[in-house]
Amino acid sequence: MSDIPFDQVDKNAVSDETLEFVRVNCLMELSSLYATRMFLRDFQGNPDFCQFQSIWYFEEMRHYLVLREYLKVFGAEPDFESLDEFDTDLKPAPWPNTLAMHWCGELRLGRWYLQWSKAAPEPVLKQVYKHIADDEFRHAQAYEDFMERALAEDPSLLLPFANASKWMLVNPQGDKHPTTYGAGSADGQAVTDRIDGYEDMQGWIQESVPDEVERGLEIRILKTLSRLSGTQLQSRSDLVRLTLSLQEEASMPPPTPNPSV
Ligand SMILES: [Fe+2]
Ligand SMILES: [Fe+2]
Questions:
Q1: CA of 115 to the centre of ligand 1 (A)
Q2: How many whole angstroms from 139 Cα to the centroid of ligand 2?
Q3: How remote is the CA of residue 167 from the centroid of ligand 2, in Å?
Q4: Which ligand is nearest the CA of 138, by number?
Q5: pLDDT at res. 198
Q6: Which of 29, 108, 126, 139 is least enclosed, having the fewest CB within 10 Å?
Q7: What is the distance in A from the centroid of ligand 1 to the CA of 62?
């Protein structure tokens, strides 16, 4: 945080609209708090992953805090008292799907932040967004390493990994971020539904993130899944075909042992 020159923020370069974008973005980053509770509950069988959570949580909260500090320069930081309005519990879910969803989610967020860093009208905000993008890409790599390790122990995990990735790639403009989406919340209400101004934020995301960014994400995800599955995946249809064949394999009864042996 001390690397960021908050005293050099050029206030004249920041419009009310940009400040509002940063405010909603700041509150979205707070959702790592609810996700951490979910991770520690649903990944109980994986102590290594739970230990990694201490780093992930620290870095995600740093995103919330750095954006909060930026808003403070303008006296526009979120009110501490109102933060519990956004709190939620995420429903228990199978950990392999959660892991793959977060892998894709971090890759997508890294691309968004990089885009916002390029588009930011103010130099310090540019710098903040570049740092956050770097963190999100590093998180994606950590999730990918955990997926690869889990797969080496249990190859059948390829099916939930491929299914969750497919879900993340389809309809990307929808409510798809794993820490904030409504269906994952215990009361069915998305974290983002609780954030006043999120609808505008969604519009800004669509305006600021060109289609080729999402296409780049798809290529990146397919490349890794090709490596992990040993199958060349060049399109989403290839991924659908892979999940169907894995599904079929998984539903086949195990071969009967030969009684003569
Ligand atoms: Fe983050
Ligand atoms: Fe992240």
A1: 14
A2: 5
A3: 19
A4: 2
A5: 80
A6: 126
A7: 8
Q: What's the rounded Cα separation, in Å, for the pair 157 and 150?
A: 8
Give the C-alpha distances (Å, rounded to integers) separating 32 from 54, 89, 94, 180: 11, 11, 18, 9
What residue type is 155 in one-letter code?
A: P
Please state the separation of Cα 10 from the chain's center in Å: 30
pLDDT tens column, 42-72: 999 999 999 999 999 999 999 999 999 999 9
Given this model, what pLDDT does residue 184 score?
61
The token duo for 258 is 């030969």
Buried residues in 125-156 as b, exposed as e (16+ CB within 10 A): bebbbebbbebbbebbebbbebbeebbeeeee
Q: What is the pLDDT of residue 228?
A: 97
Reference 222, options 237, 200, 201, 202; nearest CA is 237
Q: Where would I find the H helices in 43-122?
A: 47-72, 95-119
Of 93, 76, 61, 85, nearest in space to 193 by CA = 85
Residues of the chain with pLDDT under 50: 261
Instruction: Name residue 100's beta-bridge partners.
Output: none
Cβ atoms of residues 251 and 243 within 8 Å = no
CA of 82 to the centre of ligand 1 (A): 20
Residue 232 CA, chain-centre distance (Å), reads 25
DSSP conformation class of 43: T
- Domains within the chain, CATH numbers bracketed: 6-210 (1.20.1260)
